[in-house]
Design a protein that fits this description.
mainly beta; about 5% helix
């Protein structure tokens, strides 16, 4: 599935044990998707921080049972793919 929209990286669940930064994609048609990457928790993933406020193309799979969109790749408006600066198993991200 491919979604075009703007990434938001915001603090969520403040004051709780689940407090942390969460990434969302606001699709061009207005729907909000909660984002995560395979092998990473859905909060405090530093991959999304530099993408905050940017218009992107996100490719991955929407999981209806969880309401999350698993991001496999993110392409910026200029056509470059967002780089991952974290240590993960790259086979899970492709």
């Amino acid at each position: 599935m491919t979604i075009y929209g703007t990434i938001e990286y915001r603090m969520g669940d403040e004051g709780s044990k689940s407090e942390g930064f969460r990434a969302s994609l606001i699709a061009d048609e207005g729907k909000r998707y909660r984002l995560y990457r395979a092998g990473m928790l859905p909060y405090d993933d530093p991959f999304f921080e530099p993408l905050d406020g940017l218009s992107v193309k996100a490719e991955g799979e929407y999981e209806e049972e969880t309401g999350y969109f698993r991001v496999d790749s993110v392409t910026l408006e200029d056509g470059t793919e967002a780089e991952d600066g974290t240590e993960t198993d790259d086979t899970e991200l492709n």
